[in-house]
Amino acid sequence: MRAVVVIFPGSNRERDLCAALALVTGHEPVRVWHRDATLPEADLIVLPGGFAYGDYLRCGALAAHSPIMRGVRERAANGTPVLGICNGFQILTEAGMLPGALLPNRSLRFTCRDIHLRVENNQTIFTCGYGAGQTIKVPVAHHDGSYTADPDTLDWLEDRGLVAFRYCGPAGELAEEANFNGSARAIAGILSDSRTILGLMPHPENATDPLLGSTDGRAFFDGLVGALQ
Amino acid sequence: MNGGSNVTAAFAAELGLTQEEFERAVAILGRAPSLTELGIFSAMWSEHCSYKSSRIWLKTLPTTGPRVICGPGENAGVVDIGDGDAVVFKIESHNHPSFIEPYQGAATGVGGILRDVFTMGARPIAILDSLRFGSPLHPRTRHLVSGVVSGIAGYGNCVGVPTVGGECEFDPSYDGNILVNAMCVGLARADRIFYSAAAGPGNPVIYVGAKTGRDGIHGATMASAEFGADAGEKRPTVQVGDPFTEKLLIEACLELMAGDAIVAIQDMGAAGLTSSTVEMAGKGGLGIELDLDRVPVRETSMSPYEIMLSESQERMLMILRPGSEADARTIFTKWELDFAVIGRVTETGRLVLRMNGTIAADIPVEPLVKGAPLYERPWRRRDPAPEIDPASLPDRDPVACLQRLLASPSLASKRWLWEQYDYLVMGNTVKRPGGDAAVVRVAANGKALALATDCTPRYCRGDPTRGGAQAVAESWRNLTAVGAKPLALTDNLNFGSPERPEIMGEFVGVIEGMREACLALDYPVVSGNVSFYNETNGSAILPTPVIGGVGLIADASDAVDLALKGDGNALILIGQTSGHLGCSLYLREIEGSRAGPPPAVDLAAERRNGDFVRRAIRAGYVAACHDLSDGGLLAAVAEMAMAGGRGVVLDSPPAELPRNAFLFGEDQARYVVETADPTALIDAARAAGVPARVIGTVGGVALTLSGAGAISVDALKAIHEAWLPSFMTQG
């Protein structure tokens, strides 16, 4: 399985992501600089977390127009799976590859903490490592993670099973306080209609080692790599 | 030479130079200085850059050890951690700017300390922040907390270096002078450390990073004076940070450092291009010529004076091997950063600055550096405070007292603050904020570093020597409590005006105490920073020598934390308890008194007890461990219960001490340890000559004091977590 990680100026969770992928695949993924005009062959394209271009405009807005994104878009259209985590999710929405937008958290503060997620659809390459409705504990670390879209889009996502993850309580229950950033319908991650693009705000890559507090993210990568091999 | 005729001693005084210092500058030059030269003298001879009031005392601190690769004097300290790895670290204050403009002041404090570390060739792997604010009742405090915390978050989160620890306290003495001390820890190869001494006459001098603007001009001078009523007018001296550019600068510098192009490198911090150039030339015993027309600027018509004294952020100065400019330029262009050859190294020993075809400055470097003023300021010791007899205090309900302590600004949970920091990025955070020390894995080989910042300023006011020793001892103890071997420390010495003998007396006393503790614990000082003039209208802060400690854990999986792990386990108190309540948090919060001396620091006991605890952790006897500090035994046990979500039944206190002196006294050199095998641990302690006694059992959902009441752990948590969020949402 050949994964390509796209590095923008200001990406900062590429190390975490590469380490998680290497843990599962046994080899380092390929890193590509955002100015490169061509993407190497890839079974998976990943946009990591960070603050691309400092996020001084809207989060992800400048990165969405980076030279490499033309290639990412083309590959995605041809069915290559694309995963965007945190800033990567923001870039995918700004690039129009996923619907909706990520607004500042309800608290208007950056929030770094463990949260619980409910797996809403485990019939995808990204989520097949989990059971349907399984609750997992992974960290978040973002300032702009409140997912929003118009009601029709939200209904469309729900109807087609494109909501991948929702924020929930420890027992999987949906609760106002568990939806810490105020996302519409507690959405933490969504799929493209093809189900080959996933954007999510939480960081499964930071939950792959018992030494670091949680291993609930490990199944995410096990499932994904298994599905692509 | 232009402008020399206009420069007078009166004008020099406005820039902070005394009459005598001005005359010394004139003598060095053999003529009146130009405006640019005067600016350079005033910046280099400011307290901030020259350490003129502190140097003679700093020299008494131990700075060497078998693992020390580089002690004070470079951008950061360097310590060998084995396997060819080195840890590079330093702490630095950004107090004055953070009070004037909290967001940018704190943000650029983080930016500056990051540069100090990656300048040495290290990749930054952790940030810690030691913060002191005024009384929560002061009208500016909430605004300052909010600005400082979001400034640190805004910068640290964006550059992608985890902010893993620190401290935050409140005291009215900081009402007019908050403290923002940022520590950065980096990792380098021990044989790939980069230094700042210029070498090789003819070698090109390169400017990289962001452009120079008119921000932060004379920041170093501003930070070398107390505040009057006009603090708000000093806003233009505060710099503006750009963490995105810093992130690019880190990556570009580390990419260039992988090769052999760099001869010397220095970041542009306080006093910007002036101090970086002078320090590089001074350390190399050489001269530097700069063509200021080539300095990348973001504003038009900047004068040589402004260019030399700007403290614009995210800039570095490098000396390269001849012929390597093109390759270096390629790297910086890739990262979209400015890269300009602005001068060359010379054999003249002079700093020569040219602009618009004229010479703006021509100063002999050695007299500028070595001829900097050095003061042995008068100092006076304070009379020691009389002891407090705990039996003279009222016997109060301990559970009610505990609740008040946990809700007090000093002990209340700081979760609201540290959850705004990305403490996980880089994927190596083994122990998160909220414990005795953070633990960060060194990914390659399973080692880990333990990191903490510590200081108890009320002790330092009560008895500076004890306070200085206690700050070092508590740092050492906090690293020990997670299982680490303390290696070395960096210090940030925050004080009032050194021109007042009682403040200088605090400084001298603190240094004495630190020295004793560093020697007794084999815990040298490898870098640091002094911040004087933290006073407003004659009212000084509490003496605050913040200790940033770094320890090593051979195997990251051996690290322990303070969360209770298993019902039925025993709690064991390590160390001697005499019920010392002088200067304690209990006395301040419950009795409203700041009386008494701080606890004595028995350094031999400190070392014996700590070495025992560390061995016990390594041997696997310890399920959880916590050092005893503010609030004493009961606060520590409560913190362990809250962290683990488990109850505790505490045995009755010994009859020979007043109950609350036993429960809340702040005797030093103590730990609480949770173990499944109390017999073995007590026997081992006895054999090691370490006082140890079982004080209770883990279990249930409440913290129960035999015969003196109980409270549920959930209720304690609610009290402990409530204060800071509720304070920040008021008003």
Question: What this model shows, in words?
Answer:
The complex is a heterodimer of chains A (229) and B (731). Chain A has helices at residues 14-25, 68-77, 87-94, 151-159, 218-228; strands spanning 3-7, 30-33, 44-47, 82-85, 101-103, 111-119, 135-142, 146-148, 163-168, 187-191, 197-200. Chain A has 229 residues and is of the alpha/beta class. In chain A, the strands form 2 sheets. Chain A has a 9-stranded mixed sheet, sandwiched between helices. In chain A, β3, α2 and β4 form a beta-alpha-beta unit. With 731 residues, chain B is of the alpha+beta class. In chain B, the strands form 5 sheets. In chain B, strands 8-10-7-11-9-12-13 form a 7-stranded mixed sheet. A 7-stranded mixed sheet of chain B has the order 23-25-22-26-24-27-28. A 6-stranded mixed sheet of chain B has the order 1-2-3-6-4-5. In chain B, α7 runs parallel beside α10, α8 runs parallel beside α10 and α10 (243-257) runs antiparallel to α13 (325-334). At the A-B interface, α1 and β6 of A face α8 and α10 of B.
The helix content of chain A is 10-25%
* Strand percent estimate of chain A: 15-25%
Q: Regions of chain B with pLDDT < 50 over 5+ consecutive residues?
A: none
Query: In percent, how helical is the residue content of chain B?
Result: 25-40%
Major sheet of chain B: size, sense and barrel closure? 7 strands, mixed
Chain-averaged pLDDT of chain B: 94
Head-to-tail CA distance between termini of chain A: 6 Å
- Read across the widest sheet of chain A, the strand sequence of neighbours is 2-1-3-4-11-10-9-6-7
Strand order of the largest sheet of chain B: 8-10-7-11-9-12-13
Q: What oligomeric state do the depicted chains represent?
A: heterodimer
